[in-house]
Model the fold of this input.
Amino acid sequence: MLESASNMTPAPGSFIAEELEARGWTQLDLAFVLGVTGQSINPIIHGKRGIGPDMAKALAKAFDVPAEFFTNLQAAYDLSQANEPDPAVERRARLQEHFPVRDMIKRGWFEPGDSVMLDTQIARFFEVDDLDSVPYMMQHAAKKTHYEETLPAQLAWLFRVRQLARAMTVAAYSEKTLRALLEKLATMRAEPEETRHVPRLLSECGVRFVVVEALPRAQIDGVCFWLNASAPVIGMSMQKDRIDNFWFVLRHEIEHVLRKHGQEKECIDLDISAEPAEGIEPEEERLANEAAADFCVPTDQMTNFVARVRPFFYEHRVLMFAQRMQVHPGLVVGQVQRRTKNYAFLRKHQVKVRQFVVPSAMVDGWGNVAPVSL
Done:
């Protein structure tokens, strides 16, 4: 006699009452069948008490139906009585689906607030008029941008670098001064502490140098772009806190600047110290990688060293070669790793340098919130 409760949300007790009437039973009769007191049946009939799993199984035996019939009735009723969720839940889910918004709020990039306030801040962060114009959230295919191959977390990182760069005051950009700086930087490769001078020296050349901690899963090393034709920006994540990676990425981005790469489209660099897949390295990246490798250790000298000692890269040989090249051993280790693809080789020499760079740079991350608002 019991029928499906599809599309109905009355209290489950009403169905029990109908079945009792059809069978000619009273509540006391049902209580007798179930082996419970009469007082325990009345609250269920009138919707004042729900049907738990034990009662659902007992009613199933009494009325010869599956226990799921009663559990489904109770679930449907409970759902119909639940409050409607805050509409902001759906909006926040849409945002979090595309961008690491929670991490961005944690980093101080947005102020906590209601959904309307958050929507406004995100649109302003990505320099568009409304949320539907934010890359990856666009609702119209015609609104394509050049960011299709940039992951959302990488894009958010890039825009934070841009914000910080705009807030900086530096000297007028001089390509001549930047080229001359390369010689000065070369003298600093032997001592990790010397990296502390890099932000100031780049600023004196008119290059905005920004360090922003990478967002989770961003896997980004650096970027080069221009705020205008005379305002180059170098952004680094320093996600790999190693002396060789710092100098390689920095010199890589400087080469982009010197060649005026990134003026039309940002040069976003991912894991640039790794050996590229054969045949797919863009020309801009090839040139920057060659300049970076040659800066860390002169390429001809590195090639000769590898040819002479391979496969016996003993530590004392590496140390002697680094001393002769007047560079930190970590730079030689990095180049040997890159050529041999043995990234465990002498890793102890790849010392950390972020502790020296961060205090003198425009930094966002590692507990530091840059004093730049939207």
Remarks:
- DSSP finds 17 helices and five strands in the chain.
